[in-house]
Design a protein that fits this description.
There is one protein chain. The protein is α/β, with parallel strands linked by helices. It is about 40% helix and about 20% strand. It contains eight helices and twelve strands. β10 and β11 form a beta hairpin. α3 (about 65-75) packs parallel to α4. The chain is globular. The relative contact order is 0.12.
Length: about 230
């Protein structure tokens, strides 16, 4: 059982009954209030009862309405909800589409219940982070917003970089993983291009961070985000 966060309200949207019931039961043992539904229609019916979750765990391959469509309209209706995509569709293009639709995190199937618990705990902590110490990444408008509300205009590659680091465990990614996400935009990029890109991004952020390093290089591994960052879609 995870005890590092307060209990959350969760909805699992999954049309495979056995998996849905397994996840609901496991997350309930973590102390959360959890409902499971099998479609966008059933989700609408649950929301109409007044149960609004902190986090939505959402499959992409659903009947009638797919997960990206559901994520997009739920994000518009409830901007503060956390959305975890739990799916077999994990190509770079699928992930980019999912993030643009409103996802905060991606967990690939098959994922163990413990991995889902960890993802919920991680996103839950970010959702409940104190705003006074938290930066915001506004994906739609391509802005990085400092705790004092000053903002920096970002390139799409900047957004992808910060988003990948923000959703990674401890904000840390291997260079190859970070580069893999950026190759959806620049397929020819290599490690040297990544180093130049991260250096330029640090310099862009520096005036609002008090020249404190926002992204540090971890020798032999890759890069780690040093800002407390929440995602705004």
């Amino acid at each position: 059982m995870l005890t590092s966060i307060d209990p959350l309200r969760l909805i699992v949207v999954e049309d495979y009954t056995t998996l849905r019931n397994q996840l609901v039961l496991h997350l309930q043992t973590d102390g959360h209030t959890v409902h499971g539904v099998d479609s966008g229609i059933a989700l609408n019916e649950l929301l109409q009862t007044g149960f609004v979750p902190d986090i939505l765990i959402l499959d992409l391959n659903l009947p009638v309405e797919d997960g990206n469509s559901i994520a997009e309209r739920i994000r518009q209706a409830f901007p503060d909800i956390g959305i975890i995509m739990h799916t077999v569709r994990v190509s770079t293009s699928d992930k980019v589409q999912g993030y643009c639709s409103g996802a905060d995190m991606y967990v690939s199937k098959p994922a163990s219940p413990l991995e889902i618990s960890a993802a919920v705990a991680s996103l839950g902590r970010r959702l409940h982070a104190k705003p006074s110490a938290t930066w915001q990444l506004d994906i739609k408008n391509q802005l990085l917003i400092a705790p004092d509300t000053q903002s920096i205009a970002l390139l799409f590659t900047d957004v992808l970089t910060l988003h990948q680091l923000a959703i990674a465990s401890q904000g840390l990614l291997e260079s190859a993983q970070l580069l893999g996400g950026l190759k959806s935009v620049y397929p020819h990029w290599d490690k040297s291009n990544l180093e130049v890109h991260v250096s330029r991004l640090r310099k862009k952020i520096a005036p609002l961070s008090g020249n404190v390093s926002s992204i540090k290089m971890v020798r032999g591994i890759g890069y780690q985000l040093c800002l407390s960052l929440t995602i705004r879609n």
